[in-house]
Specification:
The chain is of the alpha+beta class. Helices cover about 15% and strands about 35% of the residues. The chain is built from 8 helices and 27 strands. Helix 1 links the parallel strand 22 and strand 23. Helix 3 packs across helix 4.
Length: about 500
Amino acid sequence: FYYTRFPSEGEVPDEELFYHRKIYYHELGAEPADDALIFGDDLDMYAWPGVSLSTNGRWLLVYVFSGYTRNDLYVKDLESGSEFVPIAEGEDARFSGYAIDDDLYMMTTLNAPNWRMVKADLTDPGASRWTELVTEREQALQTFLVAGDRLLLQYLKDATSVIRTCTTDGEYVRDVPLPAVCSVYDWTCDWRRPEVLIGLSSYLTPPTAYLYDAHDGRLSPFKEVEAPLDREAYVERQVWYESKDGTRVPMFLAHRKDIELDGGNATLLEGYGGFASSATPEFARNRFLWMDAGGVYAEACIRGGGEYGDAWHRGGMLANKQNSFDDFIAAAEWLIESGYTNPERLAVWGGSNGGLLIGAFVTQRPDLARAAICDVPLLDMVRFHNFYGATMWTTEYGHPEDPEQFEWLYAYSPYHHVEPGVRYPAMLTTTAESDTRVHPSHAMKMAARMQAYTGSDRPIMLRFEREVGHGTGTTMSMLLEQYTDYYSFLMGQLGVEYRR
């Protein structure tokens, strides 16, 4: 099999162990130390290669990612033993697909910010000889599957999943009859057969697997996660608001039907807005604790995500990162102005890149919320690149050692904008000793600085885990403890009474 690995200790300086990823070949029973290096010896240390194999075992495909807006793509004919040939190289675009026999089915943002579908003959894969199967649409293409002689394409329409069925030549057949508000959390098939398993969920619908027949169009439930709840007691819907620059942004809301929206409802607002990751309707059992206590849940689909394709992502990255924060601030303002809540009854929550979002929100608009959960966050944007593998994120945020990009980063870096005497919201910042994604120092420094500087009597707390990190290694008992702490903090600060 072909696989990727990082260098071992001693092969490179310790600070470079999170880089130099390369592709190797291993035969079962052989000594791993003797595995042949297949690809990556001449790559930049920050490049991120990945590997896949065609269904007939002839073609080895290698993707080399340089951030979340571009990658190169190469192919090697294992039958002839030829060298790698570029399929796409040097383009400011994304390429993603898989090879069925000698054909590569591929989606790309090349000349199509919302993605389009093409097919390449791997015996002669140059771009001038690609066949366009499906042109770019208004909705952003997310993923695709080949199921027998059908091509299934999953789009996002206003952050809600839509699936189109086409022939493998791209001719439209039908849409899959999905619920009005849902998202595809996973799907799979055997490429030789028309049956597809599609996993759907929403804020009120537990993860449910459906069996779809791509030939006759039948969609039938297959297996559902057990979650005894009365879905008719709740409502989930989508609203729209304007951001600071006039951009129209969607947001999802969920709450019990029997609550009175009186301008003082306890409201929890979440967001992420980065790395082209889309905020879509997803089920989380813990939210029902909040909603059953009378709370409103809101999730904003801010720029930096992938809800509207490559342009939406680029609109919230690098020099445009402030747009993500403006979108989230505008979501909070809309909830207040529309009579859902007020600053004393609003809490915000985000993790990882979403923790950066919460840090920026709290330092830029501390007047808008009573409480904040800043989960495993990135907060010191002047030095983030010095820890673990974070230099790879400079394609998303910018590089602090570049004078122009330093100005962008410093302008919003949450750690550097904590000011003495400001009345900050109550804040619970979390991290873990073994978080190898985001260094624990971000959370620890921020908590210490806010404790020293805040002008309010609201608590500034740090929650620190050991032997886990960024979700990795977290047991169910740890999750129960975490969410007990999270909701105890939120309910205590917003005056929400727990209902058994």
